[in-house]
Amino acid sequence: MKLLIKKLHEDAIIPKYMTKSAVAFDVCALKDYDIYNNKHFPSSFVKVRTGIAVAIPEGYEINVRARSGLSLEHPNYLAISGGGTIDSDYRGEIIVPVVNNRSITWKIKKGDRIAQCIVAPISQCDIEVVNELPETERGEGGFGHTGR
Fold first, then answer.
1. N or C: less crowded end of the chain, CB within 10 Å?
2. Domain of 57: which CATH number?
């Protein structure tokens, strides 16, 4: 399978898998960003441009996730509030909304790997509205229902 990538800006960095068995490739910031955080804006974000667009094969999506390395360096870092999807028919620039919940300014530098992307198969379902759902052992239990 091929993922077609278009550079929208001469400074854009073409993503690559960092190891032979890597599941995700990293996307990089096109320019420098300062994500300010102060008492007036207790949580702030920026839309980090990557300078690339992709043509995802039909039947697939790209799942955008936070990078684990950044999560260690910046404990409150969130990329797209934890995740996002790029549909196969989208041809615009990949832009990663990044949140800074810390009390210090986060400086993102041009070329920093800012999020990771996983190409994954998808399926669509026939949606049917019903009055009742089938019973399961778990039922409506959620948010920690199965224990720690």
1. C
2. 2.70.40.10
